[in-house]
Design a protein that fits this description.
This protein is mainly alpha-helical. The protein contains twelve helices and no strands. Helix 2 crosses helix 5, helix 6 runs antiparallel to helix 12 and helix 9 packs antiparallel against helix 12.
Length: 248
């Protein structure tokens, strides 16, 4: 029997045999153990051999469920993303565009998922099969934008921008190591200002300003607001272009 494809594994479309003994392992259990290993020690430390040892089985027995590490990591990413936030239930200010609060929660939630599973950052790029959880994230964001007046391509580009912001900032924060991100950046900037004050006085003075070392959640919020501000301007311009001239 041919090995299942990544798409078949992600979406569960492969027919399982109805006869024979009950499987000793489950695909869900294998993925959960792989995620636990990656969370604890990083993706580089995950191997089929170590996974098998953690489950108490032989490496060869795993291949009955998943062909290899490429398919396994695709399943891990979808598991790490999990279900999207219920942004339709978010309280919304009538003065704001209806999509704004929902997209903010969406981006913040995605950032939190990447913070919880740092190894997922390197998996969530490039051309690859998309699983049901990742598709669900796209679905809720597209539904939030349904009445915005944006084209389908613009909606998808909006999702890409917000996802890129969440992913990029999570990568920066996690790269700072276990020390608090704000403290780490502040310490580095203080040392840099002392070294660069004579050669680059304007840049040094700018970094010395209160709040110039903002990062983490502050940078996340600022970036989301600027993306959504720009989106709001674009939507308003489109609506103005479509508005009929009174008395014409």
């Amino acid at each position: 029997m041919a090995q299942p494809s990544t798409v078949e594994l992600l979406w569960g479309t492969r027919q399982r045999p109805k006869r024979g003994p009950k499987p000793a392992l489950t695909l869900e259990g294998i993925v959960a153990e792989a995620v636990a290993i990656a969370d604890a020690d990083g993706l580089a430390e995950l191997s089929m051999q170590r996974l098998a040892q953690g489950l108490g089985f032989t490496k060869m027995s795993l291949y009955r469920y998943v062909p290899g590490k490429a398919e396994l990591t695709a399943l891990m990413l979808d598991s790490a993303l999990g279900a999207p936030p219920d942004i339709a239930a978010v309280d919304r200010d009538p003065a704001d565009e209806p999509w704004r609060v929902g997209l903010r929660r969406w981006c913040e939630s995605l950032y939190e998922r990447f913070r919880a599973h740092p190894w997922a950052l390197e998996l969530a790029v490039g051309a690859r099969p998309v699983g049901p959880n990742e598709m669900a994230w796209m679905e809720v964001a597209l539904l939030d934008l349904a009445d915005s007046g944006l084209t389908t391509s613009e909606c998808l580009d909006t999702i890409a921008m917000l996802a890129g912001h969440a992913r990029g900032l999570a990568q920066q924060v996690l790269a700072a190591g276990p020390q608090d991100f704000q403290d780490s950046i502040a310490a580095q900037l203080a040392e840099m200002r002392e070294a660069a004050a004579q050669r680059y006085p304007v840049a040094s003075a700018a970094f010395a300003e209160a709040g110039a070392a903002a990062g983490g959640d502050g940078a996340l919020s600022f970036g989301i607001d600027r993306i959504l501000d720009g989106l709001g301007v674009h939507i308003a311009r489109r609506r103005d272009a479509w508005r009929p001239i009174v008395g014409a």
